[in-house]
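User: I'm curious whether this sequence folds into something compact or stays loose and floppy. Could you predict its structure so I can see for myself?
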Amino acid sequence: MIEKLVDKIISKQLEENTISTEDINIYRYGYILVYEVFVNIIVAAIIAGISGEWLLVTLFLVIYIPLRSFCGGWHADKFWKCTIYSNVIIVIMLISKETVMDMNNIWLLFGIFIICSICIFCLAPVDTVAKPISEYEKKIYSKKIRIIMLMHSVIYITMIVMECNEIAYLITFSYLTQVTMLIIEKICRKIGKILKSNEKCDKIFNSKKKGGG
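Assistant: Here's the prediction. I'll summarize afterward.
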């Protein structure tokens, strides 16, 4: 339904010549992203209301959304899938919090945070087919990612000193989730390249077979 609504908006803009055909995918991605964020925030608010964890859910979104926006990574091909996956992540965050807090091992969390930070530093930003990023944009995104990571690192160390382990957990969970998205996108691309390579080989083989016949 959202995709159809977005397509209507884009079609109208094309008729009015307010956008070019080359920018269709960019605008389509942008409109869907706005709808996704809006709907996801509403669903997240419902989850927060049911669980009573308003502060945790709000802080998670504040930490994760900017990181996700600039780092990129795997993205669901359908709006409803994105909504489900995004809010499943929030539910997992809330459920696993109790187990992690019971472990009472802030240094384990900090170690995971450091590893994830290195992964993000090395891999991000990762663009997608729906949202390709130019080399110039990658440089800008990289700078913004480093600023965000620096801010998070300062907050993380402050939380360790203040013994606010829940905030440290939220940052660690956000980074672990983001790294997962980056790795999934990288794997999907490699699989896609292998499949395309196999298709090309099959076409060449079939054309030679027909030529030989």
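Summary: The helical segments are 2-15, 24-51, 54-71, 79-103, 106-123, 135-162, 165-212. The chain has a mean pLDDT of 86.
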